[in-house]
Amino acid sequence: MDGSHRDYPLRGVTLLNRLKLRTRQLREIWKPVGLILTAWWVWRTAKNFRSQTGPFDNLIIACLALALAILYTVPIKSVQLFAKRIVAFLVDLALLAVFTVGVTHLLFQGDVVEPSAVVSMVIVWIWFLLFVLVDWRIRGTPGQLMLGLRLRTVGQGSSGFTKCLARNLLTFVVPIVLAGRLLIAPFPYPKLGIILRLCAGYAGLSVVPLSIVFTGGQTLPDLLLGMSVLPRRAALNEYASRLNKKRWVFLILASLVTGFILAYSTYLQSELARRPPVPPLSQTSQSDSGASAWLWPRLQAGIYSPDSYVQDVEVFSVSGDLRSDIREALESTPCSGTSKLQGNALLVEAQVWILTPATFKGVLYKNLGDTISAQVPASKRPAFLLFDLTTKQGFGAFTFTTAESSALCISESEGRPVDALVMTGESLRARESVGELSALAVGNLKVYSDLERLPIWSR
User: Fold this and answer.
1) pTM summary value
2) What domain range is 369 assigned to?
């Protein structure tokens, strides 16, 4: 009896070994079939990929090749630490964004401040000081702490406030300021000049994060200041950080390749955006400053203190067919019978303060219709006048734009032309810009104000 009981574990081990052997045999049989199926899948995927991505396929392939080159040539611990630090930074950015949008929006709603260049600059520098303070007091950002990382000092030095300040200046402010001057408004240059400027800007931004991979887990500012960000229980000698000539060359090449990929992608996107889309299309000329100056005094008729609400008015000349989204919105309205613009038309873009009363907006719409009807005979008016009323909220590096679109058209009623104002849609857009962030960091508020069409100072 005792011997039979002792035999049960042996039988279990024998059965497990047989299963392992059969698994290996099945793998050997499957290898040629798997290779054929894998090759077929890669071919089909590449074919679909090229048809979907168009001119961006080579860029994405280059990105994949760069990622694989880094993945298979650098120490795996560096890759792991790089991934953790990038994820930690994204977590920090998300937390800051949510907190900033919540608090600032309450201030906007409470009429304490309004979106302006100064408010955006203050937000950016508060973000920076928060990074410095958490490094100094709790040895890591919230994202780093959540992923089990800690800021440490190499050797006998200490991570005082001055060292943490210098670390964040070299990590964030210096690269953003230098790159921003190259990335902001580079398009008056020829094609090669645009790509080179963008490449240099993005490469400069890439050097610090990519240095984590090539130095053994730390950024260049970390090495310079004798600091490191490591897993909480890891010993300092587990991540030997150094930067010899070979790694310097790899770091520079990787940064340049990354910069070129991002630069070429940005250039292609801008070129595609400038190309006329497939009809129906709307072709917009440059801003008509004379028409803007003529229209603005008439738009503010009957409005008390209009400059307190309206931040900017621009008038554009538009020709061609209406956009598909506008045509769809005009269906089942008095304007549905007219689908094409008769000659040139006007696109009026007005940007108003975030807390503009609804009654104020209503007066703007009424004045717009009255002004056009009074100044231009109905027989000579274009069929449509498009009106975009936007508001902007600036949260430091991020800007949220809400746009209300409408169309003022001429419809027929008992054989006579009648004005009809139809709301054609509402949208919310979010955007960010390294160039604008750079302008805020150095206090170049005029550039930021011009780009975002926001006032420099709050009221």
Assistant:
1) 0.72
2) 283-452
